Amino acid sequence: MNNEWYKRMSFYQIWIRSFKDGNGDGIGDLKGVYEKLGYIKSLGVDGIWFSPIYPSPKADYGYDISDYKNIDPEYGTLDDFKKVLNEAHRIGLKIIMDLVVNHTSDEHPWFKESRKSRNNPYSDYYIWRDKPNNWNSLFEGKAWEYDSERGQYYLHIFAKKQPDLNMDNPKVREEVKSIMRFWLDMGVDGFREDVINFISKAEGLPDGLPFVPAVNGMPYYKDGPHIHEYMAEFRKVCEEYDCIQIGEGPMTTVSSALKYLTGENKSLDMMFSFDHMMADCFYTEYEHRPFKLYRYKKALSKWQYALAGKAWNALYIENHDHPRIISRYGSEKLRYESGSALAVSFLFLQGTPFIYQGQEIGMSNIRLRSIENYADVSSINNFNSYHLKESIEKRLKRIHLSSRDSSRTPMQWTADKYAGFSTHEPWFYVNRNHAYVNVDEEEHNESSLLNFYRKCLQIRKNSRTLIYGKYKEYFPKDPYIYMYERSLEGMHYLIICSFAKHTVKVRIPKNLAEVKLKLVISNYAGLRHSTYFAPYEARVYRFRK
Ligand code: GLC
Ligand code: CA
User: Fold this and answer.
1) Mean pLDDT score, 528-539
2) 253 and 131 housed in the same domain
């Protein structure tokens, strides 16, 4: 299998409901995507990852699928999708789909059948028990829900409307392969595989620790006993095509990730890690702590070093599951400066970058007035389940810091009403800052974040060193500066990002004191050679040695 093309690529992630409405009903759709393919191409990315666009009751906005081989009517038809796929391919963009097979929707026909009785063709498609164990779900109370039709409990690691599939059933694995083939035969280029490290559950489903909320069952469903066998089966399907597989691995450690990414049983080309997304929170973003640069750097370096020469990183700082990064690791007041420093901090690492819709223009968090205004099942559940002794205001503040809804507001295309996302009132709140944070405005401003992203992606694309080079971090303990070097065959890049809100003096590493640094890009104007860095200043230098 020779699919190494993914190493030279970068991707744009679309969460369709909020990307662009093409038919004026207030909901993003494939027609809207089609209109914006040229824009996506203009960023300099090489592919699109679609978060789920399949039919879904949307209890988890598409991650609860009721038909794996179709398109949700709100988003269009299979023909609309084929049109997008063909046009994307024509202009040189690959398309990868979300493969969500840890669970389905409870409205999927398999589940509707499964719940009917204990002995029908679908009765073992899900995980049923007479007595639940003590696991908690990640999204909604206990992990077991009683179904009166069947008279048993079913397992749901996520929301109640997301029953877990029984992957130990060979028929279920055949279904997964058939889903993969359906999309691969149509021409898609691979999959992002949702919570894929959760699909094999420990035999007997033992109780977890009683005092670890939410994640207490995780030791028994993360990297479970048969995971690598199942993954190998799915890999075989992929090998029949020229395609890639990227796993989402919540809470995955480097060492367990390497088991998917390397060796004879390699089953994934890349894995999304979560470590660097916890520089301001624990486990889930719901337990907040102040952002510390050293935590971010430490996590990035850990993965860079551990995968070097063995595997390939998936690089990201935003997606549909996290609040906006400028609001977290940067500064909304210094939106351009911190947004561009954050871009530099991850785009030049070794790996394939993924940029989430709106990240390239510096979209930031929304702060809604009441929990009633939020749409995301996990935000609502967190609000209703944790820190109940705190005041409503304090709890709402936690939601402001943590809600996934902040990344799901309509994309800000223009300063117009509804941000140019739709002509109709959108399905969800538009961030008021669309008056000045929008694509239109940034297109016309040479030194906007949007154009900065474009330049960085171009620089990465044209440099073998930035794609394949070795990684080395300098001054890992520095509280303000993230500095790293990439090198290949005598060509070197030095990347320096300040995360300070004030001017700081930067040390140049001793071994580089004599080299002649050539500035490649900076987020401040003019030639930058002083060792003083302005707030969130970032520079990329090139040199030979
Ligand atoms: C993944 C998805 C997330 C979803 C969850 C359950 O983490 O990225 O959006 O809620 O899986 O499918
Ligand atoms: Ca629409």
Assistant:
1) 92
2) no
Distance, in Å, from the CA atom of 385 to the CA atom of 393, rounded to the nearest integer, reads: 15
**pTM assigned to the model:** 0.98
Res 309: pLDDT: 96
Cα three-residue angle 469-4-458, rounded to 5 degrees: 55
Among the listed residues 29, 145, 223, 248, the single catalytic one is: 248
Give 3-state DSSP helix, strand, coil % of the chain, rounded to 5.
35, 15, 50
Is residue 483 a part of any domain in this protein? Answer: yes
Catalytic entry in 194, 285, 405, 441: 194
Residue 275 a catalytic site member = no
Verify whether residue 194 is a known catalytic residue.
Answer: yes
Q: What's the domain range around 52?
A: 4-102+170-363+407-456
Sign of CA dihedral 273, 274, 275, 279: positive
Q: Is 321 in the pocket of ligand 1 (CB under 6 A)?
A: yes
Per-residue pLDDT reduced to its tens digit, 251-294 = 999 999 999 999 998 999 999 999 999 999 987 667 899 999 99
Ligand found nearest the CA of 249: 1
Over the stretch 431-444, which tens digit does the pLDDT of each residue have?
A: 999 999 999 999 99
Is 63 close to ligand 1, i.e. is its CB under 6 Å away?
yes
Ligand number, closest to the Cα atom of 73:
2
Q: What is the CATH number of the domain that holds 143?
A: 3.90.400.10
Q: Report the distance separating Cα 351 and Cα 345, nearest Å.
A: 13
* Structural domain contains residue 395: no
